[in-house]
Write a structure and sequence with these properties.
This protein is α/β, with parallel strands linked by helices. It has helices at residues 2-25, 32-43, 62-73, 78-104, 114-121, 123-127, 135-152, 158-172, 177-193, 199-224, 230-235, 242-255, 262-265, 268-274, 278-299, 314-346, 352-384, 396-416, 430-435, 469-475, 500-503; strands spanning 389-390, 393-394, 422-425, 438-441, 456-457, 465-466, 479-487, 508-517, 520-528, 535-537. Helix content is 60%, strand content 9%. Strands 4-3-7-9-8-10 form a six-stranded mixed sheet, covered by helices on one side. The protein has a two-stranded antiparallel sheet with strand order 1-2. Strands 5-6 form a two-stranded antiparallel sheet. The termini are far apart.
Length: 538
């Protein structure tokens, strides 16, 4: 009973740390509203589209979007639902990791709680438990598929569920093919070369993966008419961004002091000697981490802080770190025993006090390093919770503020806009979602392809392309927002210059005061074809 109580208590501590950390960083990002808009249109019978009548795959999280649409259909607030689901899947990944540890080590051990603790303390994992995107859902599915693959070596029927889980991974995001592909290679290797798995199991896993995935893939190809999502062609489209990607992962390594994990990684072989199952798990997890790391370097990372592209590999990384620390402990014990035996040849009675003190020192050093790492993993959360933009990267605090402001702007347009009006913006999330207006995405993610369109390149990670102003002038949306301008002070319209390209075709500066709260008023500025009656809206 005592061990059971201790286990429950430790699990509670891990989950409480993670929940508190998530609550500290809780936010919703503007990009999430793009998926919300697709889900809303789907529920209303318009199909999975951003603008009604235009089939453009401007999202990369099909299963997540479909999942959210079910709750929208029930009349629930999708913002709240997305955050609650994100938290639940983050907690589920931690619980699955705890269960995985228990399967590997049935005997109670404090090391079994180390990787979950690292996840709970890591600001990147906690931040993207919310945000509204599919990150935590995707991470859970990836780890679930890997867990079932490892378990399937002893229980072949688990390969059925592993293949299906990886199919769901790839249906959620197409880059899940990296995880599924590496798993297939390992399964093929263990079947054909090592003869550890029956060939039937390989066939079952492959079929359970391919049937649902290919069904989805060919449906989406026929529905949207493009082999890959529009977001891929816009963000990557044959180009690579090695420099940005390298700086992205390098910044992650520096800010979270990842280089410190070299110390426990040195002792992974000690842990593998104590548990033979790790001889497959360690290289398998390592291959998942390395290949996905290289993929993130190739695509260039992201403009949002806290490294959401790297979150799916964190459970694997921290598991390896956990086993490294376990190996350190085994090493300290074996080293003490060896020294004791050597000394025992010279004297019949070993100094028990000296041996005990040596063990205490080694354990204290390892414990201190673990605590130090947990603090360093949490420390970037304090910085990112503030509002800042550095080198094109938006902090969690700034993303939260953007969502708050742009939600108000979207509701403002819903109130003042008339049927048939439209807008263009680089913030294609909350404003189009709440306004319900036809929207031109100036960053092209949800914009239907124009083969002759010459885009402008900008140094913005993840958003390197924007439509030229001449294109907007030719389309004449009612309101042109670009990156939404919201200020604390009121400026006279005549003091704000308007490009002749737009003033010559009837655009004027529209200024609207928006009451954020009883003590806070903001002023929103955009180009508009409507008469500028300085509006005040709550």
């Amino acid at each position: 009973m005592k061990k059971s109580h201790l286990s429950i208590g430790l699990i509670a501590v891990v989950l409480i740390i993670l929940i508190l950390h998530i609550n500290y960083l809780r936010f919703i990002c503007d990009d999430a509203f793009i998926s919300f808009r697709y889900a809303k249109n789907f529920v209303e019978g318009h199909g999975l589209v951003y603008n009604i009548g235009e089939r453009v795959e401007g999202y990369m999280n099909f299963l997540w979007t479909l999942f959210l649409s079910a709750f929208i259909g029930l009349g629930m607030d999708v913002v709240v639902v997305s955050q609650v689901l994100g938290i639940l899947f983050s907690l589920s990944t931690v619980l699955l990791l705890l269960y995985f540890n228990r399967k590997l080590y049935p005997e109670e051990s404090l090391f079994n709680y180390l990787a979950p603790l690292f996840l709970g303390c890591c600001g990147a994992y906690a931040a993207w438990a919310t945000g509204g995107l599919e990150t935590s859902f995707y991470t859970f599915l990836v780890f679930l598929g890997s867990f079932l693959f490892i378990t399937g070596m002893n229980k072949p029927r688990y390969f059925i569920f592993s293949g299906m889980a990886f199919a769901l991974v790839c249906i959620t995001r197409l880059d899940g093919l990296i995880f599924a592909g590496i798993t297939f290679i390992w399964l093929f290797y263990l079947t054909v070369f090592k003869k550890r798995i029956e060939f039937k199991a390989l066939v079952i896993w492959t079929l359970c993966f391919l049937v649902p995935f290919l069904t989805y893939f060919f449906w989406r190809w026929s529905y949207y008419g493009r082999f890959l999502p529009n977001t891929f062609y816009v963000k990557v489209g044959g180009m690579s961004f090695y420099r940005q990607g390298f700086l992205y992962v390098l910044d992650f390594v520096k800010r979270f002091w990842i280089w410190l994990f070299i110390v426990p990684f040195v002792f992974l072989n000690k842990s593998a000697r104590a548990n033979s199952k790790l001889n497959i798990i360690i290289p398998y997890f390592t291959s998942l981490i390395v290949v996905f790391f290289l993929y993130v370097v190739y695509v260039g990372g992201d403009f949002m802080d806290m490294y959401r592209f790297l979150v799916p590999i964190l459970p694997f990384f921290f598991f390896l770190a956990q086993e490294g620390f376990r190996g350190m402990y085994h090493y300290s014990r074996s080293k003490t025993s060896l020294q004791d035996s050597l000394k025992g040849k010279r004297r019949s009675k070993p100094n028990l006090t000296e041996i005990k003190n040596r063990k205490v020192i080694l354990i204290a050093m390892e414990t201190s390093l673990i605590i130090f790492i947990m603090i360093l993993l949490a420390f970037p959360s304090i910085e990112s919770n503030r509002e800042w933009n550095r080198n094109g990267i938006d902090s969690i605090g700034l993303l939260r503020e953007y969502s708050r402001l742009w939600t108000k702007v979207g509701l403002m347009f819903k109130e003042i806009a008339k049927p048939g009006e439209s807008l263009s913006t680089r913030a294609a999330g909350a404003i189009p979602y709440y306004s319900g207006l036809y929207a031109i995405d100036e960053l092209l993610l949800t914009l239907k392809p124009y083969p002759t369109l010459k885009v402008h390149n900008v140094p913005r990670v993840g958003h390197q392309k924007v439509v030229p102003m001449e294109f907007l002038a030719s389309k004449k949306p009612t309101h042109i927002l670009n990156h939404p301008q919201i200020r604390d002070e009121y400026i006279q319209p005549e003091e704000i210059p308007v490009d002749s390209l737009f003033s010559n075709i009837g655009y004027k500066m529209l200024i609207t005061s928006i009451y954020m709260s009883k003590k806070e008023t903001k002023y929103f500025y955009c180009l508009s074809l409507k008469t500028n009656n300085s509006k005040k809206l709550k």
